């Protein structure tokens, strides 16, 4: 089975459409979405509709919750709050009902899906360190735990009692290994690589692949500005490594 794992789309339809094309070219069987479908970007309705129509499993992130039910989540970033107010006006009551219907955690025999910290969903902790990964591995027995929120692509591997961070773009795994995988961000990467990010896992050929896909970043940034959203979200899209 080939699974595509998407997270943190953040209303960026241009990035999402490029990822959709890449998914189709890679013969994916299932699509998982790890939340933060909306906010920051200029096309929340389009990204929400796409997710609802194309993803096999969808969970919600804090920005989805904040737009639909602002009293349920605390956000302190004034730019995120301003963007959420604008995003709210673009959506319908049916959209809010859909967001409210989503869980923030999903589990199968081999998989756990969560938006943030897998051991305590809803804390919105950024799981990026090896120390945190070692602690989190003690909290689940499933083969794969996929999470978002970090806007970074990270693969932590537990083999026997050893835990390490795997840096390769395509990692071929063995039967005894267990994984914590941060899927990165489709619509707002934070690693100074402007390409859209997502993850493919092939359970038959046994590999994890960190995918990056080019898209029209300038158009996405321009749409943010033209919508009157905070310019910071347009500038983040264009960040590159020195």
From TrEMBL:
Q: Which Gene3D superfamilies match?
A: 3.60.21.10
Please report the stretch or stretches of sequence annotated as the Calcineurin-like phosphoesterase domain. Answer: 1-205
Q: Which InterPro entries match?
A: Ap4A_hydrolase, Calcineurin-like_PHP_lpxH, Metallo-depent_PP-like, Pesterase_MJ0912
Alphabetical list of PANTHER family matching this protein: BLL5683 PROTEIN, METALLOPHOSPHOESTERASE
Family to which this protein belongs:
Belongs to the metallophosphoesterase superfamily. YfcE family.
Q: What is this protein called?
A: Metallophosphoesterase family protein
| Taxonomic lineage from the root | Bacteria, Pseudomonadati, Aquificota, Aquificia, Aquificales
């Amino acid at each position: 089975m080939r699974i595509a794992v998407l997270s943190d789309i953040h209303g960026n339809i241009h990035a999402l459409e490029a990822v959709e094309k890449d998914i189709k070219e890679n013969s994916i069987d299932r699509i998982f979405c790890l939340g933060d479908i909306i906010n920051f970007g200029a096309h929340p309705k389009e990204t929400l509709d796409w997710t609802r129509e194309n993803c096999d499993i969808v969970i919600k992130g804090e920005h989805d919750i904040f737009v639909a039910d602002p009293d349920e989540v605390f956000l302190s970033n004034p730019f995120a709050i301003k963007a959420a107010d604008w995003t709210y006006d673009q959506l319908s009551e049916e959209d809010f009902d859909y967001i409210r219907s989503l869980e923030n955690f999903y589990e199968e025999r081999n998989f756990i899906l969560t938006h943030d910290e897998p051991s305590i969903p809803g804390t919105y902790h950024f799981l990026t360190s090896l120390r945190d990964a070692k602690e989190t591995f003690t909290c689940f027995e499933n083969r794969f735990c996929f999470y978002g929120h970090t806007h970074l692509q990270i693969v932590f591997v537990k083999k026997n009692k050893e835990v390490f961070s795997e840096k390769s773009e395509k990692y071929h795994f063995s039967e005894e290994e267990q994984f914590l995988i941060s899927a990165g961000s489709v619509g707002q990467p934070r690693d100074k690589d402007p390409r859209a990010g997502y993850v493919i896992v092939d359970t038959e050929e046994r590999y994890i692949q960190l995918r990056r896909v080019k898209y029209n970043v300038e158009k996405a940034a321009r749409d943010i500005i033209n919508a009157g959203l905070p310019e910071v979200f347009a500038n983040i899209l264009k960040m590159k490594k020195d």
